[in-house]
Design goal:
There is one protein chain. The protein has about 400 residues and is mostly helical. The protein has three domains: about 1-35, no CATH class; about 55-205; about 230-250 and about 260-395, no CATH class. Helices cover about 60% and strands about 0% of the residues. The protein has 17 helices and no strands. It has helices spanning about 1-15, 25-35, 55-85, 90-125, 130-140, 150-160, 175-190, 190-195, 215-220, 230, 245-250, 260-270, 280-300, 310, 315-325, 335-355, 365-395. Helix 3 packs antiparallel against helix 4 (about 90-125) and helix 7 (about 175-190) packs across helix 17. It is globular and about 75 Å long.
Length: about 400
């Protein structure tokens, strides 16, 4: 790496004030910041607060926490492919199939997103930060494996420009950028983001009776007096949608969202490093379970009768609770507000699943809706705290 560092130092004067490529200074600085720890230090003899964490380290930690979901998602893409075509394959063959499908989506996401950020930074003459390191990985993980690459590029551009840059860039957005990209595709191109789009076929012919419907889609179309758990275990591949498979992630779905276990491993990393809020993660699960339990009492449809714990492992609830709801920019900041924010996300997720047959998954819309209300929740929490303190002061 020493030769790279020497080359960067040699080229730096060309990008500084008065250099040949002065207008591209912030693009150069972005690459330099990403590659190396800069030599900026505090000066003088005053006391300073020092911390080992900065934005780059924080973003890299979040990316590392997503690696288990990414690697499992790659393998599962290949696993679902061979299940659908009725063939056997080894672990590495399945992983290579998944890599073939997933890697182009990741490359497109980062290329388009970073390209826009570099362009905006050059125009506005402001430094490039590392915020898109996380978003660039989240976008592929919430996409189905069959998504056209041009749609990934279009959704990424829309999300970065509309949900981020128009608000001032990283740290200023009010909506989760990755979820904005997915929402854009869902409403603009529903055929490519919903329905039976969750299994990569690669031109092969599926086995007789094959269905690419996700567990949530199966439950959503269950009617009459049929037991919803029985419907899940009576699909084209027998017990494909039993609770165990849904927890571990051996089911069709978005690239990185199928495994609740991998999401929980990521949650442990985020909580131990104090980057993700355990209160938000836990409260999302509590809210979803509570809403599922309330619907069990109502019992007006098979979906309402679904055992509450099934909601916790179906769809992208676990992934959304860990990696989306905990976004420090768009989530609530007050401690009490985190509980309210998370519980409402969980409850709204199940509510949308049950009452919106056109879109049985609800975590995306629930998080985006609560992103909008997060500042309002914090406002009233702070207002209530001030009121209590003023009352104590006058006693």
């Amino acid at each position: 790496m020493k030769f790279i560092e020497d080359f960067v130092k040699k080229m730096k004067p060309q990008f500084e004030r008065g250099g040949k490529y002065e207008k591209f200074y912030y693009v150069f600085e972005g690459f330099e910041t990403f590659l190396f720890q800069l030599g900026n230090t505090t000066i003088g003899k005053s006391v300073h607060v020092r911390d080992a964490i900065d934005l780059k380290r924080m973003m890299m930690t979040v990316v590392l926490s997503m690696v288990p979901a990414l690697l499992f998602g790659m393998w599962n893409v290949g696993h679902q492919h061979y299940l659908a075509v009725g063939e056997e394959a080894g672990f590495w063959i399945k992983l290579l199939i998944g890599l073939k499908v997933t890697l182009p989506v990741i490359i497109v996401s980062y290329t388009v997103g970073l390209g826009i950020e570099f362009l905006v930074a050059s125009i506005n003459k402001h430094p490039i930060n590392e915020g898109f390191l996380v978003t660039g990985m989240l976008i592929p993980l919430v996409m189905p494996p069959t998504i056209p690459l041009w749609q990934v590029a279009l959704a990424t551009a829309f999300a970065v420009i509309i949900a981020k840059e128009v608000f001032g860039g990283t740290g200023m957005n009010i909506l989760n950028v990755a979820l904005t990209a997915r929402a854009f595709l869902y409403f603009a191109y529903p055929m490519q983001i919903s329905g039976e789009v969750w299994t990569y076929m690669g031109g092969a012919t599926a086995v007789d009776g094959y269905s690419g419907a996700t567990p949530l889609a199966v439950v959503a179309v269950t009617e009459g007096t049929e037991n919803v758990v029985t419907a899940l275990t009576s699909t084209w591949h027998g017990d494909l949608y039993n609770f165990s498979n849904m927890f571990f992630g051996f089911i069709p779905g978005s690239i990185g969202e199928t495994s609740a276990l991998m999401a929980l491993i990521g949650a442990v990393i985020l909580i131990l490093t104090r980057i993700g809020s355990w209160k938000i993660i836990l409260s999302v699960f509590v809210g979803a379970y509570l809403m599922g339990w309330i619907f069990n009492l109502w019992g007006a449809s098979p979906f309402m009768e679904l055992p509450p714990h099934y909601h916790l492992v179906m769809g992208g609830l676990a992934f959304g609770a860990v990696f989306m709801a905990t976004d420090p920019v768009t989530a609530t900041q007050t401690e009490k507000g985190k509980w309210i924010y998370g519980i409402l996300i969980g409850m709204l997720t199940v509510l949308i699943r049950v009452f919106n047959p056109a879109y049985p998954e609800g975590i995306m819309l629930a998080i985006l809706l609560m992103n909008v209300f997060a500042p309002l929740i914090d406002f009233y929490i702070v207002k209530a705290n001030k009121k209590r303190r003023l009352q104590r002061a006058t006693v």
